[in-house]
Amino acid sequence: MKILLVEDDAQTSAYVANGLREHGHVVDQADNGRDGLLRASGGGYDVLVIDRMLPGMDGLAIVKTIRAAGTRSPALLLTTLGGVNDRVEGLEAGADDYLTKPFAFAELLARVNALARRPPMTEETTVLRVGDLEMNRLKRTVTRGSVLIELQPQEFRLLEYLMRNAGQVVTRTMLLENVWEFHFDPRTSVVETHISRLRAKIDRDFDEELIHTVRGSGYSLGVSR
Amino acid sequence: MSQDSFFRSTSFRLLAWYAAVFGASVAVLFFVVYWIALAAIDEQLTDSIERETQVLVDLYRSRGLGPVARAIQLRAVDLRSPRRYYLLQDAKGERIAGNLPAMAPVEGDLILPVSHLYPDRNTKLENPADAYPVVAQGQRLDSGEFLLVGESRFRAVKAREAILRALGWGIAITVLLSGIGGAALRSGFLRRIEEINRTTRSIMEGDLSQRMPTRGSGDEMDRLAVNLNAMLARIQALMESLKRVSDDIAHDLRTPLSRLRHRLEVARGKAVPDGDPVIEQSISELDAILETFSALLRIAQIESGARLAAFSDVNLAQIVSTVSDAYMPVVEDRDQKLVVMLEPVPLIQGDRELLIQMVANLIENSIRHCPAGVVITIELRQEAGAPVLCLSDTGPGIPGPERDKVFRRFYRLETSRTTPGSGLGLALVKAVAELHVASIDLSDNGPGLRVTVHFHEAAAGARKSTPHA
């Protein structure tokens, strides 16, 4: 995957770029806004990772400019700590996701992967399938093999998100934001308890485990490799 | 109308006092003027009679009774003002001359009533002055004759009437002028107070750049406005430097903290397969620091009113339902119970993301500070057209004196020191409530804690029209 990283701090940029390269991605780096805009406008990137605050040109302005010019590459904005309006502003400008600095590398990697795979399944897809697990979004039913599984509405939404991102690592923060609209870190184990309830329904009575815990990152739904 | 009642209580009372004191002093002044004028008129009358008596007495002494009688005859028919009355009698009491009937001689000052002047009631009055009593002075002459000179009080009465009329007009004009002046003063005063109130309101909504209008007249109101402006400028400068410091911290620390976290991650990558516990602990400590830091900055930004721009229609019932569903399994795992009671409530103007966090923080606060077995109840109802959110638990509660303090940043109850937490959860709840013009109060749930948030639908809606991003 080809990724453009626009980040003015050389050390952070090197660390992120190296990490992405280790995971098999091709990374171009830019250390200021103008350079970043030039490269992004050139196109050909699968994902853009852009810092919000940059010398020369603001990260928001870059996203706005390239969106106006018709560049569709998904963009991930890196935002300031505590910047309460950054997410709304970023999404309005045309960014696809945001990540608050400082971040865990695993979080960035998971989000970059999720963005690159978008859209694996469109909103209109009515039946999602992973292995022998099947979800019908219209009938709101879930079956594994031939067994019908009863899910609470929030368990359904959690499973739907996992199935849409099947095979990908999904972080705790991504689940909080997308399933519960929590844009903060709860001090109780909301995600963990929901995942364990879902596991009990999806995996406990079956031979093969579908929900995997990825240590230090999050969760992944899929058939074991 | 609060302005009306304010006006009644202060401005109007001031005006009433002003009018009363002014009116009283004018009345005293008028009374003194009237009294002095009346005395002067009476004195003038007496003087005039005395002078006339003296002239006639002198004439009598130098020329004898005959010329005096002739002089009196001439003067008595003079109808010009002032109307004078004369009586000259001989020692036996027979009238010699004059226009008054004979009478028993009385020396000194006396007042003759109208009935004495004209015993015959049908007499036609020759002069309007004849209808008034007469001030007179009687004097016995050297050979036993009696001389009486009098003057009608007509002029004195007319003068008194004229003075009273003038005073009456004076008082009427004074009252009118003080009324007009007071009303002008009042509306000017009230307008300036209202200008200050309006400015204060928009400042409270987060626009610290607003200033009180000044006129350069240098009066008290102007000086008040100038002083308030100086105070606001100082506050704004302090707020800006505080904001700059927070922004600088946020900006300058995020890079080194990012590097620190990345280095720890690299170190973790090189560590033993099971992970080095020192590195793992360092990363989680660092994350806790970042979280506290982030929460502080978030509260500061909420308090600055920067989020008002993101306000839109929000369905509180849906938020409460989503958030309680999220915490339901957590509560059950801890053997606690969460009861949700929802009534349909009107939409409010608000920030969905922050309201979700507010409800979550409230529920988490109860979950984390209560033991197993408690019942946590979250209730959304409608009171007087506005939504009320009420969260209660049957846990240890908060002692009365501590209740106001728990909204402070980093304040933690002695009993909960051992519970992990930043001490910022309720501070953020309060900041979000205030952003939504909602009042929040804590009370005893007997046992336990009850948190009540009263939203104001109209107020929250009104704030949408003044976004300060």
Task: Kindly list the characteristics that best describe this protein.
heterodimer, A: 225 residues, alpha/beta, Rossmann fold, Arc Repressor Mutant, subunit A, 2 domains, five-stranded parallel sheet, 8 helices, 38% helix, elongated, B: 469 residues, alpha+beta, Beta-Lactamase, Heat Shock Protein 90, 3 domains, five-stranded antiparallel sheet, 10 helices, 12 strands
How would you describe what is shown here?
The complex is a heterodimer of chains A (225) and B (469). Chain A contains 8 helices and 12 strands. With 225 residues, chain A is an alpha/beta fold. In chain A, the strands form 3 sheets. In chain A, strands 2-1-3-4-5 form a 5-stranded parallel sheet, sandwiched between helices. A 4-stranded antiparallel sheet of chain A has the order 6-7-8-9, covered by helices on one side. Helix content of chain B is 55%, strand content 15%. Chain B has helices spanning 2-63, 65-76, 114-117, 154-204, 220-270, 277-303, 316-333, 352-369, 425-435, 457-462, and strands at 84-89, 95-98, 108-112, 134-140, 146-152, 312-314, 337-342, 348-350, 375-383, 386-393, 439-444, 449-454. In chain B, the strands form 3 sheets. Chain B has a 5-stranded antiparallel sheet. Chain B has a 5-stranded mixed sheet with strand order 7-9-10-12-11, covered by helices on one side. Chain B has 3 domains: 2-158, Beta-Lactamase (2-Layer Sandwich); 241-303; 308-465, Heat Shock Protein 90, CATH 3.30.565. Chain B is of the alpha+beta class and 469 residues long. Chain B is built from 10 helices and 12 strands. In chain B, strand 1 (84-89) and strand 2 form a beta hairpin. Chain B is rod-shaped, with a radius of gyration of 48 Å. Classes of the chains: A alpha/beta (225), B alpha+beta (469). The A-B interface holds A 9, 11-12, 15-16, 53, 80-85, 87-88, 100-105, 152-154, 180-190, 193-194, 197, 216 and B 246, 250-251, 253-255, 257-262, 265-266, 268, 290-291, 293-298, 300-302, 306-307, 309-310, 322-323, 325-327, 329-330, 333, 352-354, 356-357, 360, 364, 367-368, 420-421, 425, 469.
